Amino acid sequence: MYKATIGIEVHAQIKTKTKMFCGCKVEFLGKPNMNICPVCMGEPGILPRINGRAVKLAVRTALALHAKINMRSIFARKNYFYPDLPKGYQITQSIPLAEGGYVEIYTENGKKKIAITRLHIEEDAGKLFHTAEGHSFVDFNRSGVPLMEIVSEPVIENEKEAVAYLRRLRQILRYVESSDADMEKGQFRCEPNISVSKEEKRGIKTEVKNLNSLKAVERAIKYEISRQKEVIEDGGTVIQQTMLWDEKKQMAIPMREKEGVAEYRYFKEPDLIPLFLHDEDIDEQRKYIPELPNEKFDRLIVQYGIKKEEAEILVDSPDIASYFEKSVGSGCSPKYAIGWITTDILGELNKAGKKFSHIKIKPSHLADLNKLIDNKTINMNIAKKILHSIIFTGESVIDYVKVNNLAQVTDENAIENAVKEVIEENVKEVERYMNGEEKLFGFFVGQVMKKMKGKANPGVVNKMLKDILNRR
Amino acid sequence: MNNKELLLNATIEEIITALKGGEISVEEMVRFFIERIKKNNLNTFVEIYEDEAIERAREADRKLATGNVHGTLFGIPFALKDNIAVKGHKLTCASRMLLDYTATYDSTVYKRIESEGGILIGRTNMDEFAMGSSTETSFYGNTLNPWDRSRVPGGSSGGSAAAVAAREVVFALGSDTGGSIRQPAALCGVTGLKPTYGRVSRYGLVAFASSLDQIGPICRSAEDAERVFTVINGFDERDTTSKEVEKYNLTDNTTRQFKVAVSNDLNDTHLNPDIKLNLLNLLNDIKADGNIVEEIDFDFSKYSVPVYQILSCSEASSNLARYDGIRYGYRAEKYDSLFDMYKKTRGEGFGEEVKRRILFGTYILMAKNSALYASSFKVARLIRNKLKETFTKYDILITPTTFNTAFKFGEKIDDPIQMHHSDALTSVCNLSGNPGLSIPAGFSRDGLPVGLQIITKRFDEKTMFRFAKYVQTKSDWHRALPEE
Amino acid sequence: MRIEKEDIKKAAEIAKIHLSEEEIESYKKNLEDMTQEFLDALESLGINLDENFDFTKSSSKRTVLRDDEPEIFEKTEMIIKNAPLVKDGLFSVPTIIKGDK
């Protein structure tokens, strides 16, 4: 039996206004080489200055990951040449800001803690563009942007766990507001290392880069596991190397290394003294830690009796979770609320290509709809119709029902007339029904509702249809 | 004092008094010094900002006329070593690599001097990237020692030291990583200070070895050095390795008794006998005044150079990685790929000594040699602790600044190890972080200046200057001028 | 201490400095001498080589941090003007081709 072992390195852009070691804005809207200064361009004689906000947010993140924070961490230089690296070295940390900690995920076999090795602060490089004519160009707007590198222990066993881990980690960063963690914008970059082995000992690992979505991560890991298995099956050995994921070809291609053997010559950054933290700094950040995704997940299930998959959707966005809780708070049943939110509202947003923040419908609207269903003014279908109509307008539910004359007809005479009409107009179908084709019952219900313009109480319709048909 | 005497020998304080008294104008003074630079032709300057300096001088004269005179260095002409940034001016480190680089920002020291009224005359010659002890590795050619034009001025701040010695400016700034201020100051017969590490902001100083580099003044006298130091010292938020200690203020002139330790380097057989004689005479005078003078066992000069080399070259190999021909500086003309461009640019843009040090530093930082780098700090710690212990018993530690007086051009340039040993007595302070001051202490029989190094505990420049000013009362050596 | 010629070549490769065979020979000798001098110094001082020596000690106990407030550098054109080769505000470099490793 082959066992896959996966560790993941994540680089998350820390949500600051300015760069890690200078006052340049973190902004990628304008022209290239606009947000640059002598410091992030590595001009002769410049010195770095630590962005205090970046440190605070990294501390906050470390707390949310249950990591042990080092009261004294050390900045170090990682030396290598590349056109996007202005100083010829990257400032990173040798003694990291935090060590240990974990992210809890849910697997098929229940809860699992993915252990974190370290979290440290570092600076990003610029961006390199290649042209067909043999030239490359460098834009340094990204040079010096603050990053957190979060490294997991190699305890992930398959692509599903990897995705669950990354999804949860990304949620945590968003919950504590330390990173927007948008993968498409490169704010959350994942580099899994993968090995496969039949024995206890870990096999030779490869690293995969260029993964721009969780889907890509999932496919790349799956691909790499089966590729490595094949290599071993065929009696070969896996080569330790870095692979680039090709989204079009859906395969990982070995990357040509920048240098034969990496010789980064790490040493303490002599331009910075150690980063000293104090208990007050840490306590201050503790205040900013909200209910975390896992806690929320467990609580929502217990408190509202919703399903795991439903809870997962809510947890993925604190905004949506809070919307859900508010609608329940104003009187909507959790069952209705979760359905309306996850199916109807999110479905509509998806179709319109809009964000949750764009909706106008309020949590109280859901409670209103619920009330109208309970007092039989409307049925579920009408409720959904109303819901879809007011998502982006936020009109009052009561007014909408009045204006559009949507109140349900419970008048049994009117319904009885409609039922009779339907039976008379569909003699053949009635015959078939009587001969045992019971599924035609739904057809009759549909016809009645059509006549009633959807406003008939479905319970009454059912009952009356059955009564009349059975009497025949 | 007539005007010429004033300009050649007065202290900064005396010059400012004369300016205020209307005895001389700032413009006259600036023209006087620029004339001397041209006439002396010692190749002390790599560029003179004549028009700009005269413009600023006139501005200062207008202020004088309205009595609006402020600034510790009002109207005083000065020079910067070619590794200290001034926005809009070239900053080349005397290297082919940076011949075309124009600084885009101001160094903190320049801003501080400018706001105290100093008038920048130009940039001075130096060893390429401050790597050398003779100013012979400069892309611009040799600077001549004003005391003997066949000899080196020392280095790497050779241009600054020679310019002050030849009275081409009132003061100049240098940088000191292993002795680059004190050694040329000694060889040129002027006063040079390497402040405590962390006293002066390094922002705008092109880095050689970040944990050893300090900027300091090269001046005519201890009084002037102290005055310039008061201007440039102090915490700078742009250099977070600068220390948040109280800013240095001028000392009073109260004399007192000193407890002086003398290192047994004085008995080293390598020490030039003339230097030894001069220092012994001086120590006798000091003793005669009732000061305690005791020889102690302090011979780290035997070990400092190799340790200094390991540490400084390692950091330099990283600090000089940014010169890659992409954002600024030299780029090779022909290359057939990116990495070929890097190699040719750096192969052609750097001189021999710089390449040697980068290569050595790169080798030391390679993973398999990491014990060498880490262990160099062990020695640095040892020296630091030994000095700390020394200063529990003594106020001052005295050593010669150099083992020898100024040597001839070409004498050591082909023997890097010999050249490196010029830093033996000075690099001790860089490794420990302590301040060191070299002051003139007489002349050898062939008329070459001799330097005395004064070391105190860290951040105790006060005691250092008190003692230096006291020693100056014993002679007129700091006023001696080379023949023109 | 003996240093192999290969070591010098490797260091030159890492440091991205083109060296002639002559230079390699002469630098090799210098580096051997410098390293040996250091080892001799350690020996006379009775200091062992120690890879794990913690040299990060600092006399300061407070790290000065910067506020996260933008400080815009206005004269970016000064920076770009210093570059040897620029096109449309971008720094131009040769593309990595085969043989670069």
List keywords for this structure.
heterotrimer; A: 472 residues; alpha+beta; Arc Repressor Mutant, subunit A; 10-stranded mixed beta sheet; 4-stranded antiparallel beta sheet; 16 strands; elongated; B: 484 residues; alpha/beta; Amidase signature (AS) enzymes; 11-stranded mixed beta sheet; 16 helices; 39% helix; 13% strand; nucleotide-binding (chain B); glutaminyl-tRNA synthase (glutamine-hydrolyzing) activity (chain B); protein biosynthesis (chain B); ATP binding (chain B)
Give a structural overview:
The complex is a heterotrimer of chains A (472), B (484) and C (101). Chain A is of the alpha+beta class and 472 residues long. Chain A folds into 3 domains: 3-286, no CATH class; 293-403, no CATH class; 412-471, Arc Repressor Mutant, subunit A. Chain A has helices at 52-64, 159-175, 214-233, 279-286, 293-304, 308-316, 318-329, 334-352, 363-374, 380-390, 397-403, 412-425, 427-434, 440-451, 458-471, and strands at residues 3-13, 68-69, 72-79, 89-95, 98-99, 102-107, 110-123, 127-130, 135-139, 146-152, 188-197, 206-209, 242-246, 251-254, 267-268, 275-276. In chain A, strands 1, 2, 5, 6, 7, 10, 11, 12, 13 and 14 form a 10-stranded mixed beta sheet that branches. In chain A, strands 3, 4, 15 and 16 form a 4-stranded antiparallel beta sheet that branches. A two-stranded antiparallel sheet of chain A has the order 8-9. The longest helix of chain A is centred in the middle third of the chain and has 20 residues, at 214-233. Chain A is elongated and about 95 Å long. The model of chain A has no long low-confidence stretch (mean pLDDT 92). Chain B has a domain at 3-256 and 475-479: Amidase signature (AS) domain (Amidase signature (AS) enzymes). In chain B, helix 10 packs across helix 12 (352-365). Chain B is built from 16 helices and 11 strands. In chain B, helix 9 links the parallel strand 7 and strand 8 (292-296). Chain B is α/β, with parallel strands linked by helices. In chain B, strands 1-3-2-4-6-5-10-11-9-7-8 form an 11-stranded mixed beta sheet, sandwiched between helices. In chain B, 39% of the residues lie in helices and 13% in strands. Chain C is mostly helical and 101 residues long. Chain C has helices spanning 5-15, 21-45, 76-81, and strands at 86-87, 90-94. A two-stranded antiparallel sheet of chain C has the order 1-2. The model of chain C has no long low-confidence stretch (mean pLDDT 89). Chains in contact: A-B, A-C, B-C. The A-B interface holds A 38, 41-50, 77, 79, 81, 83, 86-89, 136, 138, 263, 265, 267, 270-273 and B 83-85, 91, 93, 98, 101, 103-105, 107, 202-207, 209-211, 237-241, 314-315, 317-318, 320-322, 324, 326-328, 338-339, 342, 362, 365-367, 373. Chain C: Keywords: Coiled coil, Transferase. Chain C: Residues 17-44 form a coiled coil. Chain C: Pfam families: GatC.
